[in-house]
Amino acid sequence: MAVTVRLFAAARSAAGTSQVQCSTGTLREILQELTDSFPAISQVLPQCSFLVNEVSCKDLDAVLLDESMLDVLPPFAGG
C-alpha cells in the first residue's frame, strides 16, 4: 500500500528526486515520512501547497489511501 508523491521545483531539489513512494496515512504523516527520508525538504515544505489526486488539499488530517497521488508544489517564481 503506497502513495505516489511527486515533488516539484525546490522540493525536488531538496529530495534529489522527482517521485517517491510513501506509506498510506494522513497528509501530516506522509509529510513527516518525507522529512525523515529527506531532511533538507523540511525547509521547503512549510511554503508548499499540496494536491491530492489533483485537488488542492490544506487539511493535514486528510487520509491518503493506496494508489493516491500527492503533488508537493513549492511557490513558483515568474510572471
In short:
The chain has helices spanning 9-15, 27-37; strands spanning 3-7, 19-22, 25-26, 49-52, 55-56, 63-64, 69-73. The protein is an alpha+beta fold and 79 residues long.
Descriptive report:
22% of the residues are buried. This protein has 2 helices and 7 strands. The chain has a single domain, classed as Ubiquitin-like (UB roll), CATH 3.10.20. It has 79 residues and is of the alpha+beta class. Strands 2-1-7-4-5 form a 5-stranded mixed beta sheet. Helices cover 23% and strands 30% of the residues.
Number of helices: 2
**CATH class membership:** Alpha Beta
- How many structural domains are formed by the residues? 1
Span between termini: 39 Å
Strand arrangement within the widest β-sheet reads 2-1-7-4-5
How would you summarize the topology of this molecule?
Layout: E1 3-7, H1 9-15, E2 19-22, E3 25-26, H2 27-37, E4 49-52, E5 55-56, E6 63-64, E7 69-73
Parallel strand pairs: 1-7
Antiparallel strand pairs: 1-2, 3-6, 4-5, 4-7
Task: List key phrases describing it.
Ubiquitin-like (UB roll); 30% strand; two-stranded antiparallel ribbon; 79 residues; single chain; alpha+beta
